């Protein structure tokens, strides 16, 4: 009851005219910035930090929360329409959303994403109110072996369900892990694959890799095949979801938050892992598996709901522990410190108006996001009617601006082009792009957790499986790896039984 009463007080704070205005500005700015490739929510919040110096802390953080959710939705918009994720959490949306857009169902894909964000954000924020202390205590108890097991699960799951074969999925993952090795060894400080460049000592930024593989690779691929295309405009499609679409999406909208929220609360990669796992789950459970890779709406609805719920989960660790689990949370933590506020267990007691006003504003922001973007789905989808030479020229321009904005170095543009050529080659030889992005995002963290786990156990491999959580995760990994073999065995057994029954029937007749 105390949480409910505090939340009601928070709505009193969030629904004041000025705070409503900051929430609306945040949602609009976040969506607009999220649409630009490479400029994600973390960069948006960082760029707007100086602007908020004159605001009171409550208004500033309400606007930041709107930017966070808006940028996540904006990133999925370009993922779906142009196969160009605005930020890493939107990578999965491209897998099914882009084929839907190319098939004239871009508006439906955007509507599924918008409602998924709304459902995931609402459920995630309710869980934030109810379960924050419990989830925070669980997050404290997870150690290095558990983190490494989660990342292995992400690697195996993604390489198992994407691409024409597992071999190609693993090859793509190895490319990503290799790029992730570039820079200084986090444990020893030794340079790896830097070729003597001080700029590469910091590694290759994930934004540059994602934008290069998706945006540049896609633009080069389209340019290489432009003369072969018919040039016919792609139909936009109906702006609303039909009954058949709703029947296929309501369960993914509910399953996504269950996967996304816990992963947001633990430092295991933010929204990336739960979106991948949600996609895997929907592919396993769907009755339309043959449509996956060709435009299955479940592959948009589930991951987008998971991404939005993970954003709410991220706030659990940041507000109750002062532990940022994503880049956005790290920037928001810096903003708290800028105002002389230290997030942690005492924050709810010392700054109740700020905390509960922020949480209440998440509900308000979700409603604003849905109200603004659901009617705009057909408008966004009309981007596909822009002539492709102009469209992809614009993509290349914004991709270059986004990559340059990361570090302000001209070398970043050279790296962007090299990675774009790699992305083009991967498309040419049928390698899925997503495992490579996963390798870059999670590879360095997985290596660090592996080495920590081995240090704790004095080099014993048994140290990787010495917790119930890690054993459970590895059991799931083994099941995913063995599932195709089990499936074939079941098919053979059923075939043998049918053959035996048929022979008995013939003999009896």
Automatic annotation (TrEMBL):
Residues 20-437 form the DUF112 domain. The keyword Transmembrane applies. The chain crosses the membrane at residues 20-49, 61-82, 109-132, 138-162, 169-186, 206-224, 315-336, 356-377, 389-407, 463-486. The keyword Transmembrane applies. Pfam families: TctA. Keywords: Membrane, Transmembrane, Transmembrane helix. InterPro entries: DUF112_TM. This is Integral membrane protein.
């Amino acid at each position: 009851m105390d949480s409910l009463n505090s939340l009601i007080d928070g709505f009193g704070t969030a629904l004041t005219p000025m705070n409503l205005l900051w929430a609306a500005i945040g949602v609009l700015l976040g969506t607009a910035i999220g649409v630009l490739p490479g400029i994600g929510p973390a960069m948006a919040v960082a760029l707007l930090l100086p602007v908020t110096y004159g605001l009171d802390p409550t208004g500033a953080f309400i606007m930041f929360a709107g930017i966070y959710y808006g940028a996540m939705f904006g990133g999925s918009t370009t993922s779906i329409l142009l196969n160009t994720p605005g930020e890493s959490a939107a990578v999965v949306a491209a897998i099914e959303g882009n084929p839907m857009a190319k098939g004239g169902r871009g508006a439906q894909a955007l509507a599924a994403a918008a409602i998924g964000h709304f459902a995931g954000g609402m459920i995630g924020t309710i869980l934030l109110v109810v379960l924050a202390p419990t989830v925070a205590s669980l997050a404290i108890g997870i150690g290095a072996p558990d983190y490494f097991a989660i990342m292995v699960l992400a690697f195996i799951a993604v390489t198992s369900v994407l691409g024409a074969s597992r071999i190609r999925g693993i090859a793509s993952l190895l490319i990503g892990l290799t790029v992730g090795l570039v820079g200084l060894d986090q444990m020893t400080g030794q340079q790896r694959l830097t070729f003597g460049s001080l700029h590469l000592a910091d590694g290759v930024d994930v934004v540059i890799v994602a934008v290069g593989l998706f945006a540049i690779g896609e633009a080069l691929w389209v340019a290489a095949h432009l003369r072969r295309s018919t040039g016919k405009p792609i139909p936009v499609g109906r702006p609303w979801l039909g009954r058949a679409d709703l029947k296929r999406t309501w369960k993914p909208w509910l399953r996504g938050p269950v996967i996304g929220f816990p992963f947001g609360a633990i430092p295991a990669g933010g929204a990336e892992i739960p979106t991948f796992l949600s996609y895997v789950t929907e592919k396993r459970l769907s009755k339309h598996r043959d449509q996956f890779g060709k435009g299955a709406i479940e592959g948009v609805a589930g991951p987008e709901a998971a991404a939005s719920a993970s954003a709410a989960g991220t706030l659990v660790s940041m507000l109750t522990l002062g532990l940022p689990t994503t880049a956005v949370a790290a920037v928001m933590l810096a903003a708290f410190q800028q105002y002389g506020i230290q997030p942690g267990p005492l924050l709810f007691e010392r700054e109740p108006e700020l905390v509960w006003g922020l949480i209440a504003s998440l509900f308000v922001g979700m409603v604003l996001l849905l109200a603004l973007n659901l009617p705009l789905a057909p408008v966004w989808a009309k981007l596909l009617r822009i002539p492709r030479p102009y469209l992809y020229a614009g993509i290349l321009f914004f991709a270059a601006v986004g990559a340059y904005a990361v570090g302000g170095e001209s070398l970043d543009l050279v790296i962007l082009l090299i990675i774009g050529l790699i992305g083009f080659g991967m498309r040419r030889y049928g390698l899925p792009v997503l495992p490579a992005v996963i390798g870059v995002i999670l590879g360095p963290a997985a290596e660090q957790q592996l080495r920590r786990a081995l240090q704790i156990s004095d080099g014993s491999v048994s140290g990787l499986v010495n917790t119930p959580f890690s054993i459970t995760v590895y059991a799931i990994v083994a099941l995913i790896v063995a599932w195709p073999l089990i499936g074939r065995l079941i098919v053979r057994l059923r075939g043998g039984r049918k053959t035996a029954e048929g022979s008995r029937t013939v003999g009896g007749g």
